[in-house]
């Protein structure tokens, strides 16, 4: 990755202003926590919206907490 591109900001910008949040408006969605009951529901459980929004939330947390604090928290979590 070329550092001048600032991949983190490009990812956040593209996903927050584009795919993830706009796609969420177009399709029916389910609560964050639910248990699928059919094979169809399992297949629909994860989509590009799920993954793109997840990445956006992680970037938002990192921005709010500062990169240093966020990385420290991730390391501590993974050490468990």
From TrEMBL:
One of its GO terms (molecular function) is zinc ion binding. GO terms for cellular component: cytoplasm; extracellular space; membrane. InterPro entries: Peptidase_M1_aminopeptidases, Peptidase_M1_dom, Peptidase_M4/M1_CTD_sf. GO terms for biological process: peptide catabolic process; proteolysis. Residues 11-80 form the Peptidase M1 membrane alanine aminopeptidase domain. This is Peptidase M1 membrane alanine aminopeptidase domain-containing protein. It comes from Bracon brevicornis.
């Amino acid at each position: 990755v070329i550092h001048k591109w600032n991949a983190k900001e490009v990812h956040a910008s593209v996903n927050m202003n584009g795919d993830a949040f706009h796609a969420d408006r177009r399709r029916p969605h389910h609560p964050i926590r639910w248990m699928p009951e059919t094979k169809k529901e399992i297949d629909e459980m994860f989509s590009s919206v799920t993954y793109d929004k997840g990445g956006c939330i992680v970037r938002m947390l990192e921005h709010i907490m500062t990169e240093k604090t966020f990385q420290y928290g991730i390391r501590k979590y993974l050490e468990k």
